[in-house]
Amino acid sequence: MPKNGISLKAQGALLHHQLFLTLRQQILDGVYREGDRLPTQEALSEHYRVSRITVRRAVSELQAEGLIRNEQGVGAFVLAVKQKAPAAVSLTYLEGLKRVASETKVAVLVSELARPPLAVARLLALADGVDAMHVVRVRERKGTPLMLLDAWMPARFAPLLTPPALRKRPLYELLTSDGTQLGEVVQEVTAEMADPYAAQHLQVKVNSPLLRATRLVHDNRQQPIQHLVIRATPLRSRLVMVIPGNELDTISSGHLVHDME
């Protein structure tokens, strides 16, 4: 536990869930190892400047997730945590899409022509007032939702993107089924808080942290054909990148963009 006290704020996620996430990450990172006793509830309360009730609720969540065992009158002890193996990325972009499609099931939530948000319309180079095809899906594995996918495409793709077709074939295959060839993909990765819609479909709490990957897909003529937002919980998903040594000085290696004037 850091030496200096930290004050959790009653904004966004509830205080006890903020504390749960903080302690959970420390356990997963090995700050607290198997067999270690967590600081006492009194110490946690003082360090994070929250009530004992808040600490008890956070500890209960840790126990419910199987990260600790709570011995009455003795303390809370860390249980064995299965460590994530270092990810070995050996798939291309398209191979990754195929793998996701083969390893998950899809539920189609939305498939309709609608007015896109202004920012999306501009990225897709659509004139003001022009409708686009909107498709929202959830991909899950063994009954657990992994990704909420929100896609917009030019209206010319609408005949290809019927609910039955979307349930049978991955979206990228449908987009290329008319002869369209994929070109450049620009991806941004950020984080956001789960709104009620995302929380419901990803089965997480409202205001829980989410990974957000935004992709702008072009065809081989450099025309934008898809704006896709992928939302996933970091409790189940992570984004892994491997940058070959000969690409360290290229734009494909990516870079951080700081939105400050």
TrEMBL record:
<keyword id="KW-0805">Transcription regulation</keyword>
<dbReference type="GO" id="GO:0045892">
    <property type="term" value="P:negative regulation of DNA-templated transcription"/>
</dbReference>
<dbReference type="InterPro" id="IPR011663">
    <property type="entry name" value="UTRA"/>
</dbReference>
<dbReference type="InterPro" id="IPR050679">
    <property type="entry name" value="Bact_HTH_transcr_reg"/>
</dbReference>
<keyword id="KW-0804">Transcription</keyword>
<feature type="domain" description="HTH gntR-type">
    <location>
        <begin position="13"/>
        <end position="81"/>
    </location>
</feature>
<dbReference type="GO" id="GO:0003677">
    <property type="term" value="F:DNA binding"/>
</dbReference>
<keyword id="KW-0238">DNA-binding</keyword>
<dbReference type="Pfam" id="PF07702">
    <property type="entry name" value="UTRA"/>
</dbReference>
<dbReference type="GO" id="GO:0003700">
    <property type="term" value="F:DNA-binding transcription factor activity"/>
</dbReference>
<dbReference type="InterPro" id="IPR036388">
    <property type="entry name" value="WH-like_DNA-bd_sf"/>
</dbReference>
<dbReference type="InterPro" id="IPR036390">
    <property type="entry name" value="WH_DNA-bd_sf"/>
</dbReference>
<dbReference type="InterPro" id="IPR000524">
    <property type="entry name" value="Tscrpt_reg_HTH_GntR"/>
</dbReference>
<dbReference type="InterPro" id="IPR028978">
    <property type="entry name" value="Chorismate_lyase_/UTRA_dom_sf"/>
</dbReference>
<dbReference type="Pfam" id="PF00392">
    <property type="entry name" value="GntR"/>
</dbReference>
<protein>
    <submittedName>
        <fullName>GntR family transcriptional regulator</fullName>
    </submittedName>
</protein>
